[in-house]
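User: I'm putting together notes for a lab meeting next week and I want to include a structural view of one of the chains we've been expressing. I don't have a solved structure, so I'd like a prediction I can at least talk through. The sequence is below, exactly as it appears in our construct file.
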Amino acid sequence: MTFNTPTSTILYSIEETIKAYRKLSAKNIAEVIPDITVDQALILIILNKNSNYTQVELADLVFKDYASITRILKLMEDKDYLNKKTNTHDKRRSLVTITEKGKKAISLLDPVIQINRNTALKGITDSELTQLFDLLKKITKNCTS
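Assistant: Thanks for the context. Below is the predicted structure for the 145-residue chain, given as structure tokens.
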């Protein structure tokens, strides 16, 4: 396949899709919880499923560097979505827990996330999703090996 410009490549299209989805998500999240970002919502949902993640693991899961995740967690703590304390067994690690406000936010976010996914994936079959997922995994593998 020949591309006339860098913006007509599949990799550019993937980036464009991600940005469009994040914009849709941010808009819909802001309608329900005005002071939370997409990344902060994602962190709440991830921690709700497994509260034992370290900051480094969280950073990897949300594609952020360590300094960024530290800033994000501090902002979330300031907004009372999270509590962060030093781990008594390992002083190098922090224990991050979701507050009551954070739990309420998660319950408000669940239907929004479902709407976002349904909107983004409208008209795409399960077979097409499986094929797309497999192709994206191949691209990721090619880039990381």
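A couple of points you could mention at the meeting. Strands lie at 82-86, 94-98. The first strand starts at residue 82 and ends at 86.

User: Perfect, that's what I needed.
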